[in-house]
Amino acid sequence: MSSPNRAAAALAIAAAGLLVGGVALAIFWAPEDVDQGFSQKIFFIHVPVALTAYAFFGFGAWKALRLLSTRNSRYDLESYTAVHMGVIFGLLTLVTGSIWAKTSWGQWWSWGERQLVLFLIVFLFYSAYFMLRYSTDPGPRRERNSAVFALFGVALIPVSFLAVRIAGTILHPTVFTHDDGVAMPWEMFLAFCICLGGVLALAATFYRVELAGKRIDESLKELREQLA
Amino acid sequence: MSAYAVDVATLARKDVLLELRSRDTLPAMLLFVVSALVVFHFALPADASDRAEIGLFWIALIFTALLGLTRAFAAERDQGLLDGLVLAPVDRSAIWAAKVISVVVFLALAEAVALPAYALFFQPVGWQLVAAVALADVGIASIGALVAAMAVASRSRELLLPLLFLPLAIPVVIGGVGASVSENPASFLGFLGLYDAVFAILAWASFEYVVTE
Questions:
Q1: Which residues touch A85 (CB under 8 Å, ≥6 apart)?
Q2: B160–A170 CB contact, under 8 Å
Q3: What is the pLDDT of residues B113-146, one digit of tens each?
């Protein structure tokens, strides 16, 4: 068990360093946004967290695919942990996005903000994943149902993206577009990349710790059953 | 006809025949959709816009479909039929395809009542709405047959199905409402077609994993 622990510790240190450095760069070094001023700095946390959530959902679906093709139940726990982490980061995205919306537009929630609406749909979908898991008895059936549902998630994300996009053109007038993602100053972009690296390292740490915890839970349950 | 098509047709015929004999689901769906429309009439303020009525029609449709889907695997569950079907020498995806056909048939019958009722109570029905409903049926049935099979395997069946189904149905509602409200319905109808294709292929390919032990 020592090598996974050491890897998690290394990742945690990397995450701490990158996050502190990235946030410091974002606050003190990157130029302030002309329109939004200081409140725009939440961008350096909000967007990396959102991208990390997507990465987790994709990773969970990949593990689900591995489960379905190999029938190795090891992947079930990995896929579950990835979705679990994805939902936590998704919730963080909704919270930080909501704070950003409040500071820059004066309201906590705006249906015109497509990325957030998309996230809400995806978040609801993956919350249902938990309901599915908790209400099905453990066994190969649950593993495969969860895997299929996790796979549907990666199909739902682009489809919903498209839906929210075309709906945005007519149901809700598009007021805000921030297509200036690539056009940001290079200092800002560098700080953003460091923050992204930091959040990803943090996410990888969480994933490892949580997976180890879930594995211990499983073996503890097995031991208890053997004793009983 | 290929052997696969024969299997699908036989299984779908079984579902329709069961419903014709027992009359469990369809009358409930018909009554529900008409009751829902009446409730919606009173839920809307008197000066509500036509667009709000379109939205409520789609809500009625989604919940009626949900009602039908809750019963979709009832016979299989109560009589242990699913084990028999899985043991039978048919491709597992044929079970899904047959279920999609029978769900689409029930939905179409419910809509054959719901659309005239909507025209009578609210506003005339345009071709866009009929086309959108037809496309939405395929998507609803494709997704629904799969998540209904998942829900049947769980402990809290009727409770779980809406939770699994509704997030997946949000794009259907967006496409359906958009097709009736927008000046450019073709893009929304195209989107519904895309949704059908993506999720039908995915559900068809993954159904086998959901039903086998």
A1: A56, A203, A206, A207, A210
A2: no
A3: 999 999 998 888 888 899 999 999 999 999 999 9
- Tell me the two tokens of residue B133: 């409903």
Q: Give this complex's ipTM.
A: 0.88
Rounded distance between C-alpha atoms, residue B85 and residue B67, angstroms: 24
Show the tokens assigned to A123.
């978040």
* Tokens 């190999």 sit on residue: A70
Flag if A164 and B210 touch (Cβ within 8 Å): no
CA A212 – CA B51 distance, rounded (Å) = 52
Q: Using a CB-CB distance cutoff of 8 angstroms, which residues of chain B are in contact with residue A151? A: 202, 206
Residue A84 binned pLDDT confidence (cut-offs 50, 70, 90): very high
For residue B160, count CB atoms less than 10 angstroms from its CB and return exposed for 0-12, middle for 13-18, buried for 19 or more: buried
Neighbours of A218 (CB within 10 A): 14
Element of type H or E holding A105: helix A74-105
Helix (H, G, I), strand (E, B) or coil at A208: helix
Rounded to whole angstroms, how far apart are CA atoms B132 and B126? 10
Yes or no: say if A87 and A127 are a contact pair by the CB < 8 Å rule: yes
Chain A residues with beta carbon closer than 8 angstroms to that of B174 = 163-164, 166-167, 171
- Inspect the interface and report whether the beta carbons of B150 and A132 lie closer than 8 Å: yes
Are A79 and A60 in contact, with CB atoms under 8 Å apart? Answer: yes
pTM of the complete model: 0.87
Give, in degrees to the nearest 5, the angle at Cα A28 between A27 and A30: 75
Phi, psi for B155 (deg, rounded to 5): -75, -40
Task: Give tens-digit pLDDT for A138-197.
Answer: 888 889 999 999 999 999 999 988 888 887 665 444 444 555 445 677 777 888 888 888
Residue A154 sits at the chain B interface (C-beta within 8 Å): no
Residue A17's pLDDT is 86
Look at A109-113, A138-142, B66-70, B86-90 and tell me which has the smallest mean pLDDT.
A109-113
Q: Do A144 and B209 touch (CB under 8 A)?
A: yes
Angstrom distance (rounded) from CA A191 to CA A25: 6
Phi and psi torsions of A33, nearest 5°: -65, 140
* Span B11-44, pLDDT tens digits: 899 888 988 888 888 899 999 999 999 998 888 8
